[in-house]
């Protein structure tokens, strides 16, 4: 049995982290960018001749959307068991905004 792992395409949070600031993402919902959808489409084209018996995805929208693009003819089994780890209080927050908070210094040690 072969198992393939695919990461979701670029998200808005990925883009913000690259261009402006660093944000904790974790399970924070962030949609794919146009580039992220194009990345998924490119992957779909490159594996179009491969057969997949099952497709599993995290239930987070970025992973589901990527799977829908890459595997348009497959039933996608969504599960929270494949989610990114939860970052709790930190999710969706910028590191710059947290650096002076006690929770961050404890988390970062």
TrEMBL record:
Top-level class of the enzyme under EC nomenclature: hydrolase
Superkingdom of source: Bacteria
Residues annotated as transmembrane: none
E.C. number: 3.1.3.-
GO molecular function: hydrolase activity
PROSITE patterns linked: PG_MUTASE
Keywords, in A-Z order: Hydrolase
Entry-linked Pfam families: His_Phos_1 (PF00300)
Full protein name: Histidine phosphatase family protein
């Amino acid at each position: 049995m072969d198992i393939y792992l695919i990461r979701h395409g670029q998200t808005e949070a990925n883009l913000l982290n690259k261009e402006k600031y660093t944000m904790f993402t974790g399970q924070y919902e962030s949609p794919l960018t146009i580039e992220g959808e194009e990345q998924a489409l490119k992957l779909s084209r490159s594996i179009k001749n491969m057969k997949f018996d099952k497709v599993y995805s995290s239930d987070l929208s970025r992973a589901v959307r990527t799977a829908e693009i890459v595997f348009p003819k497959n039933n996608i089994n969504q599960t929270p068991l494949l989610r990114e780890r939860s970052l709790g209080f930190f999710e969706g927050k910028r590191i710059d905004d947290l650096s002076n908070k006690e929770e961050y210094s404890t988390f970062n040690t």
